[in-house]
Design goal:
Helix content is 49%, strand content 13%. By secondary structure, it is an alpha/beta fold. The strands form two sheets. Strands 2-1-3-4-5-6 form a six-stranded parallel beta sheet, with helices on both faces. Strands 9-8-7-10-11-12 form a six-stranded parallel beta sheet, with helices on both faces. Helix 3 runs parallel beside helix 7 and helix 5 packs across helix 7.
Length: 409
């Protein structure tokens, strides 16, 4: 039986059972930046419960040989089913064994969860009875992203039905259990409005919007010096792509128009894990740099940043581009639309043909015109997406949520 102690009425718990890292992307980096911002602003009423301290190994070790067989495509039907069962058991084990830490959250009036599974197990294994806020961070439902990641990893079109069923159960129940939903913007919520599990359970619940913030670059680099370092032509018109090399991020669209871009003398520089599926041909105007720890120097050597996402949540790379004072070319999706409403330096496109047209227009702009757009983007960042704004807005939102708690009690 869980013993409920006196609540920490002026403190809020932030829950994410994974590591916080500066350059990991998703909730890991989002919360890393938020924690830094709160600390700098001396906002001390957020307590972060992050990381997986127990590190379960049992089912993961059992799965090891099946992982290898899946990779080599030598796995039988029975073994594939066993792989899926072990995958699900490991997911359950990794959170249930954190139940003691989850129960430690019971005194807090509000817990802000950043993964559907964390919220689900907070309520079930942790027995939490207070108010829960849920923020989902993926451009597609988590249940779909898990399957797409597995298909990419093992180069297969297998549906992974058992895993999908488990992840959908988690997702559906997390949305049912959540009292409040938090999104970076109204447009970032759009993807979720297409899915019945979210539309059904958001009815009658509070939805709040908290725009994402990132820090200023730690260091500035000289454009031509960075280009020389990577052997990028110093006089080229360079567009930077940062992110996963997959369909949802629109990397395949860039590969598809490689010849068109080359004909227009547009140089594409890509950072992020390389794809085994989408392979650009070798070209003096296409650079694959792989994973980069220091992306600040890449922003500094680029003329513009591109986000050709098919679906967008609220991309950290977009906000980073604004913090660097870079022009952003982006698909007319999700959080990109939020940013474009606030600054002329975010240029949206609606199709591949329109993307090429907007690139060409930007390429032909004078240096003075580009500088105006860059300045507009930096100004938008300073007023809306700085760490100071991020932390302050977050503190204000949770004060209001807590006041609502007290009024309703």
């Amino acid at each position: 039986m869980i013993r409920f102690e006196q609540k920490n009425t002026d403190k809020y718990a932030v829950l994410f059972l994974d590591q916080l890292k500066e350059r990991n992307g998703g909730p890991s980096t989002y919360l890393y930046h938020l924690k830094q911002g709160l600390r700098a602003q001396k906002i001390r009423n957020f307590v972060f419960y992050a990381g997986n301290q127990s590190q379960p190994r049992h089912f993961k070790n059992l799965r090891g040989k099946l992982d290898e067989k899946l990779s080599l495509n030598t796995i039988g039907r029975g073994e594939r089913i066993l792989f899926e069962i072990l995958f699900v058991l490991y997911e359950i084990e990794s959170r249930v064994c954190e139940r003691k830490r989850l129960r430690d959250l019971c005194p807090y009036p509000i817990v802000w969860a950043h993964h559907v599974a964390d919220l689900f197990y907070l309520k079930t294994a942790g027995g939490y009875k207070g108010k829960t806020a849920l923020m989902m961070h993926t451009p597609e439902p988590w249940s779909e992203e898990v399957i797409h990641n597995l298909q990419d990893k093992f180069k297969t079109d297998h549906k992974f039905g058992i895993i999908r069923m488990y992840e959908r159960m988690i997702e559906r129940n997390a949305c049912r259990m959540a009292d409040v939903f938090v999104f970076p913007s109204k447009e970032a919520e759009e993807t979720y409005l297409k899915f019945p599990f979210y539309k059904k359970y958001k009815k009658g619940k509070e939805v709040h919007y908290l725009i994402t913030g990132v820090p200023l670059p730690k260091e500035r680099y000289e454009k031509q010096e960075v280009r020389r370092e990577y052997s990028i032509p110093e006089d080229a018109f360079v567009i930077l792509f940062i992110g996963r090399h997959n369909q949802i991020k629109g990397y395949d669209l860039l590969v598809r128009i490689q010849k068109e871009l080359e004909r227009r003398k547009v140089c594409i520089v890509c950072a992020g894990k390389k794809s085994d599926v989408y392979q650009p041909y070798v070209s003096p105007l296409w650079f694959e740099l792989g994973w980069q720890e220091n992306v600040e120097k890449l922003y500094d050597m680029a003329d513009a940043v591109i986000l050709p996402n098919r679906q967008t949540y609220f991309d950290l790379a977009a906000v980073e581009a604004l913090a660097e004072g870079k022009i952003l070319l982006a698909s007319n999706t999700g959080g990109n639309k939020t940013l474009a409403r606030g600054t002329d330096g975010v240029i949206l496109f609606r199709s591949v043909k329109d993307m090429i047209k907007k690139m060409e227009r930007l390429q032909k702009m004078s240096a003075e015109e580009r500088k105006k757009l860059e300045a507009a983007n930096y100004n938008y960042y300073r007023l809306n997406c700085s760490l100071e704004q991020f932390a302050g807005n977050c503190g204000q939102l949770f004060r209001e949520l807590n006041e609502g708690n007290e009024d309703g009690s």
